[in-house]
Amino acid sequence: MIYLQLCIEFFKTGLFSVGGGLATLPFLYAMAEHYPWFTKAELTQMIAVSESTPGPLGVNMATYVGMKTAGPLGGILATFSLVLPGLIIIILIARALEKFQKNQLVQNVFSGLRPAVVGMIAFSATSVLENAFFLAGTDFSSFSLGTLDWRNIILFFVLLFAVFKWKKHPILYIAIGAIVGIVFQF
Amino acid sequence: MKDYFELLAAFFRIGAFTFGGGYAMLPMLERELILKHKWSTMEELMDYFAVGQCTPGTIAVNTASFIGYKRKKVPGAIIATLGVILPSLIIIIILAAILQQVSDYPVVQSAFRGISAAVAALIVQSVWGMGKSGVKNLLGVILMILSFYFIFFLKVNPVWIVLGAGGMGAFAYSEIGKKSLKKLLTPFRKEEFK
């Protein structure tokens, strides 16, 4: 029963991958080893496609892997199984938070957490910046003036100025980025 | 009914315009949840992220569940979560067969290069906004720098950072902490002194 196996595997992945989409990858590689569903090489291709498709990476991977393994129903079941554990846990935590939100200790804990969250998000921003600033196949570790994507860096600063000056909807800036990329053949 | 549809539509837009995963959807969340619908404050969003770092699941899905629950309890959490995963389901199931070829087209690659610059600009602005509402005193600056240092240079698991910073908060804002760390806790801006 391939559908049941998919559900169990992706439920496990959803339950144990703490910290976002990239955390699901080790589980997917383990699946490639245990089941004849897909090979590691296929998985690498699926990651590349999932990264360039809109939506959270973990969700994209579940849909894609489920789809490749057992058709559209497989894709739907794998995705639902992936998000189910998180959904249940968050509902339980949200309930508890509702009760303890006014609690002074809880408020103090969150006062310490918020600046730390800013630091952690600044960290994930660095990899977004790295991806935008360096030419394909290079990163900060191979830094030289030749590995920098100058046209994209200029576009970044122009858009950064625009984002701070006119606070329009993010979709507008994403569309501008896509159009400039196509017109100037980035 | 209208509330559920709004939840579904807002999170559908967030899912459909998240490029790059993880916190790349922060600008969309900020726009839809804080500015447009006023379902959440920046502080709450940061609290959800902190919890999301220690619980299973992707950040986008966790945040959807939180906001959905806050609006409409369990059905709201389910609807919002459904909204954020629907774009992935639709795009990948319909286009799986051709996605691989499509993503190799030069014109698609050019578009994604440009999009990467836009996403980078948007996330810098979001981090800036988050810093302004999350870092209010010297202790905040120290915690922010420490958190970045531990995760970027030492590759410490975020769970430990959340536990450490939460513990620091519990101590510093307690009665004993308030007396001994006065200088660290003085707000930068007077109007925020409560």
Account of the 3D structure:
The complex is a heterodimer of chains A (about 190) and B (about 190). With about 190 residues, chain A is mainly alpha-helical. Chain A has two domains: about 1-100, no CATH class; about 105-185, no CATH class. In chain A, about 75% of the residues lie in helices and about 0% in strands. In chain A, α1 packs across α4. The longest helix of chain A is centred in the middle third of the chain and has 44 residues, at about 55-100. Chain B folds into two domains: about 1-135, no CATH class; about 135-194, no CATH class. Chain B is about 80% helix and about 0% strand. Chain B has nine helices and no strands. The longest helix of chain B is centred in the middle third of the chain and has 44 residues, at about 60-100. The chains are: A mainly alpha (about 190), B mainly alpha (about 190). The interface between A and B is large, with 95 and 108 residues.
Task: Write a concise keyword list for the protein shown above.
heterodimer; A: 186 residues; mainly alpha; 2 domains; 76% helix; 0% strand; B: 194 residues; 78% helix
